[in-house]
Amino acid sequence: MSEGPAMERPYFENEPQRPTVLTEIPGPESRRVIEDLEKLFDTRSLNMLGNYQKSFGNYIADLDGNLLLDVYSQIASIPVGYNNPALLRAASTPEMASALVNRPALGPFPQHDWAQILRSGILKVAPKGLDQVFTSMAGSDANETAYKAAFMWRRRQERGGPNVEFTPEEMASSMNNQAPGSPNLSILSFKSAFHGRLFGSLSTTRSKPIHKMDIPAFNWPQAPFPILKYPLEDHVEENAREEQRCLEETERLIKEWPLPPAAVIVEPIQSEGGDHHASPAFFCGLREITKKHGVLFIVDEVQTGMGATGKFWAHDHWDLPEPPDMVTFSKKAQAAGYYYGNLELRPNKPFRQFNTWMGDPARAILFRAIIQEMERLNLVENTARVGDYLYARLEKLAEKHPTEMRNLRGKGMGTFIAWDSPRRDEFLKAAKTVGVNIGGCGTDAVRLRPMLIFQKRHADILVEAIEKLFSSQN
């Protein structure tokens, strides 16, 4: 028998028992501070003003005494709770202080224990088959540097190996942004994908026009991502046909796009674009197509990685016949970069994959502390178990309120759960009045992104709040 909420041992002994809502959000004190902040900083995307000194565990506080159950967790980037004691201890060590005040340029001046930091942290949880890492600054940067690695790898194959020197024509034309030095290649992504907001990553982002307006972009291909029908068990054949259609179009684009793709990049779950899922068979099909055509396979685990789907890496659900070529990470890792296994993905010369910092030892130290906390508390297993419990409760709620909770998805995927709402923005705003901070994605999806320390009793609070909102709206 699985333990119920009453039998759970809390991960944070002094965590609040329930949310507290004292004022509207933002309240008077928050509005005063926001008004002052607006003089210096664009606040138009502000969700709520956090008081992080008073936030704890699964709860986010503000300046007006409100305390909300946070199932958005800084857009899926808080792994083990606000003010986690283990992370605070790691942040207070001489090792961390040295990394912060002596931040090294890791390419030319790596610190003496950089290999040990990598082995004991970032590489300890490397995806199967990938034993190398390139560290970077953020998720967008992780994807962009992975793209660079893919392009350099592709040209290396075309030249015939790593020791073939660049021609004078290649070097001269690269300075004018023209071929052959700037080759006519591309990265293939998928409709509704989100891979970042820098120039290369933005050219593969297809989720919302607001991300892309006024920004020049590369002429890179986008394949259709499967739009499945729910419940899955009622649409097996139809969904299989949809996935096959998308695979066939992906292969056609690889063969026919005028700028040949050096890589295909895909999210295990299209998060920002609307929480779209696909089956393991679809992703295994992508892996097969990329191998067939000599195209690299990049899995963007910036949002799905670090245990949120009930496995450490979401692509572990697929049972791939061989690993991806690269896996990018950030968010819950509190660090960023990409894993790889093939040494040919290292550039043939120094300074080609390079910037001043190339990541941050302080963030790598924090990542290591997060991993240790996840292992100590068995948080991946917790997320799988609590996710099943939460999904079962939401499934009953969807049966009771079918017009308010549509296309519930994420079964068996930990707490990576979403549904479509006819009044999504209104729902998200109203959720704060019942003590929950929750996020959306796409045009009408509500997405759950709780922390890894989210437990069954938190799930009960969340479901009760949603039930209250649905009942008040009907």
UniProtKB/TrEMBL annotation:
One of its GO terms (cellular component) is mitochondrion. One of its GO terms (biological process) is gamma-aminobutyric acid catabolic process. Keywords: Aminotransferase, Pyridoxal phosphate, Transferase. GO terms for molecular function: 4-aminobutyrate:2-oxoglutarate transaminase activity; pyridoxal phosphate binding. It catalyses: 4-aminobutanoate + 2-oxoglutarate = succinate semialdehyde + L-glutamate. SUPFAM superfamilies: PLP-dependent transferases (SSF53383). Its EC number is 2.6.1.19. PROSITE patterns: AA_TRANSFER_CLASS_3. Its cofactor is pyridoxal 5'-phosphate. Belongs to the class-III pyridoxal-phosphate-dependent aminotransferase family. This is 4-aminobutyrate aminotransferase.
